[in-house]
Amino acid sequence: MNFESVAGQLWEKGACFEMRNILAQATDREHPDIRRKRLLFRCWHRGTQESDLILGPFAEDSLTTLNNDQLGRFEALLDCTDPDLFDWIFGVSDPPAEHEHDVMELLRSFCTERHRAPRQIGQHRI
Questions:
Q1: I want to staple 10 with a disulfide (CB 3.0 to 4.6 A). Which of 15, 18, 21, 90 is the partner?
Q2: What is the 8-class DSSP label of residue 122?
Q3: Within 13 A of 60's CA, how many CA atoms are on the CB side?
Q4: CA 3 to CA 97: how far, in whole Å?
Q5: Hey, where are the domains in the chain?
Q6: pTM to 2 decimals?
């Protein structure tokens, strides 16, 4: 029996479900270290280099300090599109109420501080 036939049988019996609910339930039960590693991977593999360079360092720096509720809020942010996240992080537009929270503020602060810090490439400070 292949996946398509099983899915078809479930659909015919009215057993359709939302994948998001299944993933949310799985993340609540999984070991915190596994959850953090999965989130770190998602941050470094968004699909665009710009997203990776914003979210990856934030995740490396912050994931170990976030509690379970904050991890859930961060995970919800990762479900948003990159253009929306950029606009919210850099203040182009305000996020919807469900994404205006402590984790969004941590992400904004991280990006602001990161851009203020002098960086060095080779022998040149930029």
A1: 15
A2: T
A3: 7
A4: 38
A5: 32-115
A6: 0.69
